[in-house]
Each structure stands twice: as structure tokens, then as C-alpha cells.
Design brief:
Helix content is 45%, strand content 18%. The chain is an alpha/beta fold.
Length: 236
């Protein structure tokens, strides 16, 4: 699940989650854990990030909202406690879930005027804040042939009416990347991400395509879509 990307906080969560999942492809976002629902404790709730490889669980909150940050600490501790009762099957034998500590501060392109800074505020809690973009990220060169294929992919996604449907978007991207003729797209994304970093690759994809007059979506949704493309390229 991803929620309505235009609700306050959803886009921020999505970008941070997709950034983490790009680096940790076996991790999961919106991870279901029984007896953790905020509205009804006997129901299943969802942790923002769970990494079964490391056993880490994270919650994501706006750093400027102290009440939300306090709630995040309480939530992640509940998630860990209940995951160690109901979700041990995801882990290696003898491993337990714990609040996450392996998260490096990152500046993510959020819009054409703002970046999103995310950092670990305390164990299991990732806080984010928006900061002005002071110039574009260091550019990377996307081969012209690959850039043209990006434009084809974006146009294909835009041709569907329900463009915010994550299952539909994923299917379109996977079909595109699995086409043997588009193998160069996967190789270009992987090579660029290693040398320049995922956030810069995402920003370059959005800005190159947008500058060509294709236009993806409204601001942050464009970056979220670019993250999906990058993450799936890593996974295939």
C-alpha cells in the first residue's frame, strides 16, 4: 500500500521508503504486524520499514513535530515487540527483530525547489524535514539512447488513467525493463547509482525527461516514480 500520494506526509514517507528499499532490496515497506493498529490494538498495523536481513524496523516521522516523534518511538517499540511474537518466520534462525540503527543521513530530491533531508533521530526513528534546493545535484550523463527510452516509458505510464495505482505502475515498469531491448536502461541505472548515488540518478531522470517536454507528474510524485524505476532496475 502507498496511500494517496497527495496527502500530507505520504510522499515524504514514500521517497524515504523507496530510497531505503533501493539500497536494501530485500527490505519491505508498510510491513504488516499483528496487534499493532493505532486505532484498534487487536488489529494489524504497518511498520514503515522492516528489513528481514538485518532484523531492523523503522518508523518515519516529521522531525519538526515533537508529538509525532514521540509517537514514532512508541510505535516502533510496539512493532518490534509484536514482530518478535508473530513475524520471526521472516528472520534467520535465532535472529530477533530490533529497532533500526543502520540509516545514514540522506538528502533526497523532493521537488524542483526543495530537497527532503532524512536522518536517524534515535534507534528505530527516522525524522525528515524539507530544505531548499541550493542548485541542482551534480549531474550525471544518461546516454541519449537510454534517455529516449525513459521518455517512452513515461509516456506509456501516463497513457493509463489510474496512474497512481502502484500495481499498474509496477507492471508497466517491469514489462519495460524485462524487454531485452531495454537491457541498456538497467545497466545505465546501476552504473550511475554506484558512481553518483541513487538520489542523483533519480533527480537526473526527472529533470532530463521534464526538460525534454515530456513531464512526468506533479513534482514529488515525479521523484517517487523515478525511485520506483531505479529500485526495480536494481531488482531485475
Amino acid at each position: 500500500m502507498s496511500g494517496n500520494i497527495f496527502f500530507n506526509g505520504v510522499r515524504e514517507h514514500m521517497l524515504i521508503q523507496l530510497h531505503y528499499l533501493t539500497i536494501n532490496p530485500k527490505a519491505e515497506r508498510e510491513y504488516w504486524i499483528p496487534e499493532t493498529s493505532a486505532n484498534n490494538p487487536i488489529n494489524t498495523g504497518r511498520a514503515d520499514i522492516a528489513n528481514p536481513v538485518t532484523g531492523e524496523i523503522f518508523e518515519i516521522k516529521p522531525a519538526s513535530n515533537l508529538n509525532a516523534m514521540d509517537a514514532g518511538v512508541a510505535e516502533v517499540n510496539i512493532y518490534v515487540a509484536k514482530a518478535n511474537i508473530y513475524c520471526l518466520g521472516k528472520l534467520s534462525v535465532g535472529q530477533l527483530w530490533r529497532t533500526g540503527t543502520n540509516f545514514s543521513t540522506v538528502i533526497l530530491p523532493f521537488s524542483l525547489t526543495q530537497n527532503l533531508r532524512a536522518s536517524l533521530k534515535q534507534s528505530g526513528l527516522i525524522g525528515y524535514e524539507k530544505v531548499p534546493r541550493s542548485g541542482n545535484p551534480v549531474p550525471i550523463v544518461i546516454p541519449e539512447s537510454v534517455a529516449e527510452k525513459f521518455k517512452v516509458l513515461i509516456k506509456r505510464i501516463k497513457s493509463f488513467q489510474n496512474i497512481t495505482n502502484p500495481q499498474m505502475v509496477r507492471r508497466i515498469i517491469v514489462e519495460f525493463l524485462k524487454d531485452p531491448q531495454n537491457r541498456d536502461v538497467i545497466l545505465a541505472i546501476r552504473a550511475a547509482a554506484i558512481t553518483a548515488g541513487t538520489a542523483i540518478v533519480v533527480g537526473t531522470i526527472v529533470e532530463d525527461v521534464a526538460s525534454a517536454g515530456v513531464g512526468i507528474l506533479d513534482d514529488a510524485a515525479s521523484f517517487a516514480l523515478a525511485y520506483r524505476i531505479v529500485r526495480l532496475a536494481y531488482m531485475l
